[in-house]
Write a sequence for this structure.
């Protein structure tokens, strides 16, 4: 039987890169989103609302996927609402597919909040785990929508007999517009504003993040791991961390990012300078810049997710991730983190999303 993929969240950072990876590997690939992209060659767009079972039933009526990749979530005001909404979208999707009996594997993308806690209690107090973070660490004694989504996958796998994999990236670096968690593009927009105004490219986060070791996940590397896990016998029914494979310190990388844009780097000065505050009044400026430089997206909040970048860069501990589990099973892909940022910046400039 030919592999037929359903990428859920195909318009996002991970979903779009995964769709390209699957198509490049010869998979028949459907991309589901509320407003699916038509820009990826050979990706079949599917428009559906994951919170509307009737919408899903209609959209998937003639699609019988062998592999399902869930790469999306919906942000709510509280963790209780995050749990309700994001578990529902997974349950609705898998319930809609169950009668088809076609699904062989389901992959779910979550992230390091599995170890660090939900938005309401992120990386605080006595909840801080030992690093490097390993998949064997137990769940925290906190409500967490990642756990709720996992439990929906486990329940459906028991009911329907498919295998599963869970993927936990750390800070996705890649291109997307309208994404809720987008550090690379946020920093690119911030640096562009600094260049326009003459402001220093001020480190926004904590001393622990500035000085400690860190890692990130290129959207292209998680795409490769998702395909690998879906097609590797030994990777079935496993959870995997996924990062580029190198470590760095922001105190080393920050100046290199500044140099790419030709701006002055300012490091940790004893005070946290949240980007959400630094960029709070920059919406009108960005619209002026969009007109001046003929940029494709004039709305700052469609490109920059300062709130989430502040969460990541403000953590009180260094955060890096162990990749030994998937390495031992044969996943050997590697990506330079500096190249992840520079490749993204080049793409954003080519696509006229930054000057």
């Amino acid at each position: 039987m030919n592999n037929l993929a359903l990428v859920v969240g195909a318009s996002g950072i991970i979903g779009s890169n995964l769709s390209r990876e699957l198509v490049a590997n010869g998979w028949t690939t459907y991309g589901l989103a509320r407003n699916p992209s038509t820009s990826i060659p050979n990706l079949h767009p599917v428009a559906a609302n994951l919170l509307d079972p009737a919408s899903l039933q209609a959209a998937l009526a003639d699609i019988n996927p062998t592999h399902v990749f869930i790469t999306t979530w919906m942000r709510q005001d509280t963790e209780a609402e995050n749990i309700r909404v994001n578990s529902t979208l997974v349950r609705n999707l898998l319930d809609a597919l169950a009668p088809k009996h076609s699904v062989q594997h389901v992959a779910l993308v979550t992230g390091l909040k599995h170890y660090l806690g939900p938005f309401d209690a992120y990386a605080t107090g006595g909840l801080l785990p030992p690093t490097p973070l390993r998949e064997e660490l137990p769940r925290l004694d906190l409500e967490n929508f990642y756990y709720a989504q996992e439990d929906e996958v486990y329940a459906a796998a028991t009911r329907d007999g498919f295998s599963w994999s869970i993927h936990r990236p750390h800070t996705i670096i890649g291109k997307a517009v309208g994404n809720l968690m987008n550090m690379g593009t946020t920093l690119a927009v911030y640096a562009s504003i600094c260049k326009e105004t003459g402001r220093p490219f001020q480190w926004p986060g904590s001393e622990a993040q500035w000085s400690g070791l860190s890692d990130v996940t290129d959207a292209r590397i998680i795409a490769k791991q998702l395909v690998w896990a879906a097609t590797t016998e030994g990777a079935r029914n496993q959870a995997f961390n996924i990062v580029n494979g190198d470590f760095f310190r922001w105190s080393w990388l920050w100046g290199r990012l500044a140099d790419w844009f030709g701006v002055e780097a300012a490091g940790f000065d004893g005070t946290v300078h949240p980007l959400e505050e630094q960029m709070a009044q920059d919406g009108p400026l960005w619209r002026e810049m969009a007109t001046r430089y003929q940029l494709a997206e004039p709305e700052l909040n469609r490109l920059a997710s300062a709130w989430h970048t502040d969460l990541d860069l403000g953590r009180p501990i260094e955060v890096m991730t162990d990749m030994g589990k998937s390495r031992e099973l044969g996943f050997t892909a590697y990506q330079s983190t500096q190249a992840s940022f520079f490749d993204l910046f080049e793409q954003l400039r080519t696509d006229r999303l930054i000057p």
Notes: The radius of gyration is 20 Å. The chain is about 40% helix and 15% strand.
